[in-house]
Amino acid sequence: MSFLTVQHIHHIYFTKESATLALENIDLEIKEGEFISFLGPSGCGKTTLLSIIAGLISPTKGKVLMEGKPVDRFSSSIGYMLQQDYLFPWKTIEENILLGLKIGGKLTPEARMRGLSLLAEMGLENVEKSYPRQLSGGMRQRAALVRTLATDPKLLMLDEPFSALDYQTKLKLEDLVWSTLKDYGKTALLVTHDIGEAIAMSDRIFLLSSKPGRVAKTFIIPEELKKLEPFQARQHPSFNDLFQHIWKELDLLDEKG
């Protein structure tokens, strides 16, 4: 049985004047521990699909199962990391990273120690009493990742989490997120516009067409790239060939759109 199953998803956005088919016939099987990326033209429904998988939006048709059970929007088994860190500016970093545990009634002394230990693993020692304004953008995103991981979710949703960062910080954070998720055996779904990022971080890439969003192509990342950290993968000879292949496919989708 697959860890995550997306079955026959269709989604229509209704207004008073119109009905827009955003997603059509999406079927996916995802294994536990896989890192999956969604690529596609703007408006192809990547974020809508992510929201449906997370249970935040009910699809017009179809269903999503995690470990054989329907997803629940209130489940602590799903964590989100977004483009903005959404740390509360009036709370310390420690208060921010432990907020999910506190809301869920799981803030035990042991859980607090695990959260602070995660903070140290992310290279954020001695910042727990600091406020978000005192940290750089990259540090805040690392703190946001700790907040996400502190509740021990089984599935992580990554919605363009590096796009607001400068390029050097982005590359460093890609490596950190990739290695952390591998170490903890987490399953992750990434929405990105960055082909290189998708290749460097993923086990598989789903390329979506637009109007409506469908799975147009599936790319399986070669083993020689999957075993490398993202920065190293970008230097591998196979990387550029795959990049050019996906670029051409994406360009064709843009022309059709």
UniProtKB/TrEMBL annotation:
<dbReference type="GO" id="GO:0016887">
    <property type="term" value="F:ATP hydrolysis activity"/>
</dbReference>
<keyword id="KW-0547">Nucleotide-binding</keyword>
<keyword id="KW-0067">ATP-binding</keyword>
<dbReference type="GO" id="GO:0005524">
    <property type="term" value="F:ATP binding"/>
</dbReference>
<dbReference type="InterPro" id="IPR017871">
    <property type="entry name" value="ABC_transporter-like_CS"/>
</dbReference>
<feature type="domain" description="ABC transporter">
    <location>
        <begin position="7"/>
        <end position="235"/>
    </location>
</feature>
<dbReference type="InterPro" id="IPR050166">
    <property type="entry name" value="ABC_transporter_ATP-bind"/>
</dbReference>
<dbReference type="InterPro" id="IPR003439">
    <property type="entry name" value="ABC_transporter-like_ATP-bd"/>
</dbReference>
<dbReference type="Pfam" id="PF00005">
    <property type="entry name" value="ABC_tran"/>
</dbReference>
<dbReference type="InterPro" id="IPR027417">
    <property type="entry name" value="P-loop_NTPase"/>
</dbReference>
<dbReference type="InterPro" id="IPR003593">
    <property type="entry name" value="AAA+_ATPase"/>
</dbReference>
<protein>
    <submittedName>
        <fullName>Spermidine/putrescine ABC transporter ATP-binding protein</fullName>
    </submittedName>
</protein>
<keyword id="KW-0813">Transport</keyword>
